[in-house]
Structures are given as C-alpha cells and as structure tokens.
Amino acid sequence: MTSIQGRRDAALDNLKGLLILSVVYVHMYDMLGQKTPLLYTIRLVVLSVQMPLFLFLSGYFGKNVQKRRQTAFVDYLIPFLLFNTLYYLMRAGQQPELEYGLLRPLNMYWFLLTLLLIRLLLPELLRVRGLLPLSVLLALLAGGDSYFGRTLSLSRTVCFFPFYLLGYYCTEAHMRRIRRLPVPVALAGGALGALLSLWMTDTLHPDGDASHPFQLVNSYETQGLEPWEGVLFRLSIYLIAPLLGALLLRLVPSKKGLLTRIGRGSMTVYLLHAFPMLWAVRHWEWLCGLLHRLMPALAQYDYPGRLVGGVPQLALLAAYALLVSLALSSPAVTRTYQRMMEDVQRMLFRPPRGEEK
Fold first, then answer.
1. Is the pLDDT of residue 288 over 90?
2. pLDDT digits 0-9 by tens, 199-244
3. CA 17 → CA 37, 58, 105, distances in Å?
4. For residues 290 and 207, what is the distance between their CA atoms, to the nearest angstrom?
C-alpha cells in the first residue's frame, strides 16, 4: 500500500495488517462455532468496523479512478472466479448441501465483487451531485428489499459504498488530522462506538440464524427486524464504524514491524486464508489433542477455551490468525501470486493497443 505521492505509509500498512488479522480470526471463530460471551462481544465490535475500514482504505488509495477501472477485471473478477470456485470445491466435501453460484460469493469473497462493481462504476457515479448522502439513503432503502442480497454482492456493494466514498473524499490533510486526535478523545469515541454496537444488538435482537445487520448482507425482514429497526441498525453502523475507525487510525503504530509485512501482503492473506482454515476445522480434534499434550492442564476440556470467558480460546484463535497471516503474507507467497496472475492475464487478455508485437 502506498500513499498518494507514492511513498509507503507504514501506519496504514500496519492498519491493514491489523484488519486482515481480524478477518482471519473472525472467519475461524465462525467456522468453529465455539461461542463464549467474551468471544461473541469481540466478534460483534470487530464486525462493526472491520469491513467499513477496509472499504475506506480502498477508497483512499483508489483516487485514480480511470486506472482502477482499467485493471478491475484482472484485479478482482479473475481472482473471484478462481478462488470462490476453489473454496466451494474444498468446502463441498465437508458440507455437501452447499450451493454454488457463479456470481454468488461464498463467505469472504464478496469483497472482490464489491470492489469490481465500485471501480467499474465510480467514474460515472462521481458525476452525481450529493453522491455521499444519496448512497446512504440507497443503502437504507436496499434493506427493505428481500431479493436484494448476495447475488453479485449487491447488498454489500450498495451498503458499504458510503465508506468507500468517505475514503475517496478523504485527503492526506484529513488523515493527518485524524491521526493527531488527542488520545482521550479517540478513546472516548471508540468506547462510544463499541458500546453502541453492543447496545443495539442487545436491544433490537436481530435473528441469530441470519448474518448480523452490521454485515449488511440481508434484508431487514430476513434479520427479524421491523423496517424502522432495520433502518436504525443500518444508520448506526455509519456512526459506529467512523468512531472505531478513528480510534484505530489514531492508535495504530507508525513503525515498521510484523504488522507492516502482513499489511503489505494482505491480498494474499485474504485470498488464501480460507484453505488452511478448512484444513484446521477438519482436523480440529487432532489439533486440540496436540495442544492437550503440550499443555496438560487443558486436557479436561473438550476444546481449548471452554472456560468461563473463553480466554484460552481467544489466545488460540489469535495465535492461529497471526501464524496464518505471517505465512500467507510472506514474500515468497506474494511473488508467486503476482506471477500467477500475470500469467493468467497474458492467457486471457490481449495486450493494450500499441503494446502488441
């Protein structure tokens, strides 16, 4: 990730690293289904800021809209078709009833379709007056349509688009102001956002069998919410995410380290982390047995973390997310991915006019 002038910003790389770690953590938590109050609370707060902040950063670094449009198919459509299909083929062995849709993303790969659609349409959309408030209004209306959902990632594309626009309109001067906020102010705002996310969930009781409203994938009806409740929930994320995002932007370290490496390789972590996750879930009993042998004190529990509060499980999931992220962001993996995508591009696309031999 680079700044607008072409310089790498270690702080924003660190932020990307922290966010992709949270993605790996939450996906593994969801697959295991071992809920404790502590882990559920962490997941809920993470969901309220994780993808909004990723979309914000994508918009911040996507100001060259014509260039982004030209490379959108190679950057997003080809990886989506490849990895979404591979993920289905691997997961179908564990879950035979799983349905496959060519343009219906499974789990994490919706983000590729969302960026594809935004970057294809953005040059024209930027001509619309009052685009940011209109995008929020459209997101609220979209929740009332039960057919507006996962296909082509339309629901998430429309509903996360305001965060992409916030990033697009954010300048380096704005970013400097955010990162110079007094720490007590940033902490107070972040605490308010976290408490609001928990209070909204506890008060309105969305359907636990559907995705959480902060994931912006289902209609209000599907989530068991009245229209006014759904609108209130959806409006709240447009307040909660900036409050928590400002806190993370203020506190993220600016020095290079492990997070920097992970952040710079966040695309390969994102694309590939589903595959070790499926292996780990399939062999979870064996992994737990190995942990029991290494730490005999946990042998009395069926799973690590079946303690009040789930602290051991939290540590285990965090360690898993760190190890997987470090491995998949390594230079060897990122270089291999880049070479593979360049080869795919040469096979599928003619070179631009004037570059043909």
1. no
2. 998 888 888 777 888 999 988 998 888 999 999 999 999 999 999 9
3. 26, 14, 23
4. 36
Q: Which among 203, 91, 205, 220 is positioned nearest to 149, based on CA atoms?
A: 220
Separation between Cα atoms, residue 35 and residue 30, nearest integer Å: 9
pLDDT value, residue 279: 86
Query: Is it the case that residue 148 has pLDDT exceeding 70?
Result: yes
Distance CA 78, CA 113 (A): 10
Helices 311-328 & 10-32 angle (0-180, nearest 10): 120
Give the count of beta carbons closer than 10 Å to the beta carbon of residue 19.
Answer: 23
Look-up of token digits 């902040």: 53
Q: What is the sign of the dihedral through the CA atoms of 71, 337, 77 and 51?
A: negative
For residues 275 and 90, give the distance between their C-alpha atoms in angstroms, rounded to a whole number.
Answer: 8
At which residue do the structure tokens 């991915």 appear?
337
Instruction: Write out pLDDT tens, residues 79-122.
Output: 999 999 999 888 887 777 777 878 888 878 999 999 999 999 99
Q: What are phi and psi of 208, to 5 degrees?
A: -70, -20
- The region, left, alpha or beta by phi > 0 then psi within -120 to 50, assigned to residue 233 is alpha
- Say if residues 172 and 4 touch (Cβ distance below 8 Å): yes
For the chain, the helix, strand and coil percentages under 3-state DSSP, each to the nearest 5: 70, 0, 30
**pLDDT surpassing 60 at residue 1:** no
Whether 139 contacts 103, CB under 8 Å = no
Q: Which helix (H) or strand (E) holds 27?
A: helix 10-32
